């Protein structure tokens, strides 16, 4: 590697992309291209269908009443331009750095580094929410109680995801394929067996809290729809990104939109708005009301299974983003080391340590992880705005520009309707950008 490239390895300094691309394919920092269209569909579905489908429908119903169905329908439609845009980005600019690479190409190193660091921090801080959600379902299933038990089981769930990713991408993707098909079959079964308990009268009044409440429901429900950018981090491991990404993304958008809208409708028709039901246990509530306590336990078991699938996908994306930032010099380069099988082992170990610190922090502070959901959605929308703006600048064909305009407009509308979480997300990104600027001036 040239001296010019070596001098750019300092933290948040300019990146020599030509040098990065020209690294020998046999180098120990090179990922292996082993994934196809089917694998991408699996990772799209397992990334997006997870904790959101268990937590969000009940919360959205509580915020906006039956009118929350409008939020789900809007998001299901908007998912297609979102999916198309991110698929095109990954096909044209395949990089494990994902959206931060695209932003860097369009707006320069500083904004790209800020976006990458912001996404990385968001992943490392918010991902344990998945493990804690699994822990709550599992504790309910086993009859366990106590905040400490929830935290320990949650950390065990995150550790399981880290270990699964250490097995290597080829084996992990095959296991994930089996899990995702089982997951979809389980969700469809819950919807089908709960539907006979539907009562149309529950849809009236349709908007008991006013139509303005739909905006809040959209922001919360968006938590179930973000993750398109997450699959872009696997681009360096896809055999034919230009063909595979568009096919996989649009197929996944159809599957996810149909699942979410169907489940949200059944929840609105079956679960009484004032039932005192735990909003973080949608599947359990549906089966308890429709078939009794025994079926509710099966719902809890399915929920744990679903979240474990989701955890594997999100740990995968977080480790690839950290690997890419290390490879490109944004964080220490030693974290870009991979095994002979192409597994970024150093990045996975760092993710595991960060998850442990998150759990310790929650134990010390005694906080509730559910408060992170609106902030996580708003923070992702901030990155989406930059990504779609970058797409408008980089792509010249009219169709792609139109897709980016539609996606950018939708993202801005969702963010503006988010209230305080949106403001906090913008301030957090500004703080990250400020850190990047100050760090670059000091080196």
Automatic annotation (TrEMBL):
Keywords: Cell membrane, Membrane, Transmembrane, Transmembrane helix. The chain crosses the membrane at residues 41-63, 69-90, 111-138, 144-165, 177-197, 209-228, 249-271, 301-325, 346-366, 372-392. The keyword Transmembrane helix applies. GO terms for cellular component: plasma membrane. Its main location: membrane. It comes from the Bacteria. It comes from Streptomyces sporangiiformans. It is a multi-pass membrane protein. GO terms for molecular function: transmembrane transporter activity. It is found in: Cell membrane. This is APC family permease.
């Amino acid at each position: 590697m040239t001296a010019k490239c070596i001098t750019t390895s300092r933290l948040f300094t300019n990146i020599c992309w030509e040098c990065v691309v020209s690294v020998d394919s046999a180098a120990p920092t090179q990922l292996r291209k082993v994934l196809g269209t089917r694998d991408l569909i699996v990772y799209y579905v397992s990334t997006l269908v997870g904790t959101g489908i268990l937590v969000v429908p009940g919360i959205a119903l509580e915020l906006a009443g039956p009118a929350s169905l409008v939020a789900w329908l809007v998001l299901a439609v908007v998912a297609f331009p979102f999916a198309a845009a991110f698929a095109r980005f990954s096909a044209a600019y395949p990089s494990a750095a994902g959206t931060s690479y695209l932003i860097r190409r369009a707006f320069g190193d500083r904004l790209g580094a800020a976006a990458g660091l912001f996404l990385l921090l968001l992943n490392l801080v918010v991902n344990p929410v998945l493990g804690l959600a699994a822990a709550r379902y599992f504790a309910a299933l086993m009859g366990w109680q106590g905040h400490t038990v929830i935290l320990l089981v949650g950390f065990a769930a995150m550790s399981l995801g880290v270990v699964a990713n250490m097995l290597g991408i080829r084996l992990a993707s095959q296991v994930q394929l089996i899990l995702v098909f089982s997951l979809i079959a389980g969700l469809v079964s819950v919807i089908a067996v709960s539907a006979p308990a539907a009562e149309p009268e529950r849809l009236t009044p349709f908007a008991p809290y006013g139509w303005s409440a739909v905006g809040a429901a959209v922001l919360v429900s968006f938590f179930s729809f973000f993750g398109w950018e997450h699959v872009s981090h696997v681009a360096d491991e896809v055999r034919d990104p230009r063909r595979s990404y568009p096919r996989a993304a649009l197929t996944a958008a159809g599957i996810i939109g149909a699942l979410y809208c169907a489940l949200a409708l059944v929840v609105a028709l079956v679960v009484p708005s004032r039932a005192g039901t735990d909003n973080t246990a949608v599947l359990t509530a549906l089966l308890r009301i429709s078939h009794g306590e025994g079926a509710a336990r099966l719902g809890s078991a399915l929920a744990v299974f679903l979240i474990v699938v989701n955890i594997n996908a999100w740990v995968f994306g977080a480790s690839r983003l950290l690997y890419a930032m290390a490879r490109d010099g944004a964080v220490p380069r030693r974290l870009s080391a991979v095994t002979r099988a192409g597994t970024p082992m150093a990045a996975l170990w760092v993710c595991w340590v960060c998850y442990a610190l998150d759990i310790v922090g929650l134990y010390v502070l005694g906080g509730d992880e559910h408060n992170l959901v609106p902030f996580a959605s708003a923070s992702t929308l901030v990155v989406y705005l930059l990504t779609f703006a970058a797409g408008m600048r980089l792509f010249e064909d009219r169709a792609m520009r139109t897709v980016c305009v539609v996606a950018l407009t939708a993202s801005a509308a969702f963010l503006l309707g988010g209230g305080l979480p949106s403001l906090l997300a913008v301030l957090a990104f500004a703080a990250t950008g400020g850190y990047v600027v100050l760090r670059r001036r000091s080196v």
